[in-house]
Amino acid sequence: MGIMPEPNIHELARFYDPDEMHSKVTPETLHIPDHVFFRSSDLKYQKYREAWGASLLARGVLAYFKPCEVRLCEGDFPDFEIRAGEVVHPFEFTEVLEPEYRRGDEYKKERTGPIYSREVKFANVGEAVKWIFEGIKRKAEKRYGPGTHLLVYVDFQVANAIDLALVRKRCKRYETTFKSMWLLFGFGIAQLFPSDEFGTVCLKWSEIPGYLEESKKRMGIKDF
Q: How far is residue 158 from each of residues 27, 114, 132, 183, measured CA to CA in Å?
């Protein structure tokens, strides 16, 4: 069986079923290590990460709201769109990493051995809330205008859980800045505030359908 060709970014600009989009933008499909996909400073991978995050959010919308399709946008705005019924929702995507981390830093140091490693900082409850708030604040200050939704991919480790109540309290000032705001973390998604477009779905951490099982398979983890 031959190696699947890497998808062309332009091919992702049409609407796909969430699972089909996801299958096109995983590290396995792109034939690269996870750390390159998630931590590289290469702008190409940034667009793939946007499509990856969009596909996982769309899985949640499909499961908890209504049938939908998703596509990557090639211009500066929006980053991606989700079409549910006759409505197209424009989304911006942002990633929140450890404040002191700069993309590509790990490539400046020689790594040996088959296992990629880096020093990991585990955020406490307060730090997690602060870092997420600052990520949302940066996007809000860009003033995208009415009608824009926001997906925040939380890409750092936490010592405990992310407290949604504390995040909501800290980010309350931005509740009306975006039509809806979503967090993507680990195997779950959450909508920060109720929205006219998506109602009250996923106001608690909600499992992304199939993603836990997919991740276990990728890492070779078996349930006993």
A: 23, 25, 12, 14
Residue 91 is encoded by which pair of tokens?
A: 């989304």
User: How far apart are alpha carbons 80 and 74 in whole angstroms?
Assistant: 8
For the domain bounded by 9-218, which CATH number is listed?
Answer: 3.40.1540
Q: SS3 of 189, please?
A: strand
Kind of pairing between the strands at 149-154 and 87-96: parallel
Give pTM, 2 decimals.
Answer: 0.89
| DSSP conformational letter for 3 | P
pLDDT digits (tens, 9 = 90+) for 179-195: 999 999 999 999 999 99
Q: Where are the domains of the chain?
A: 9-218
| Distance in angstroms (rounded) separating the CA atoms of residues 31 and 35 | 12
User: What pLDDT digit, counting tens, does each position of 123-137 carry?
Assistant: 999 999 999 999 999
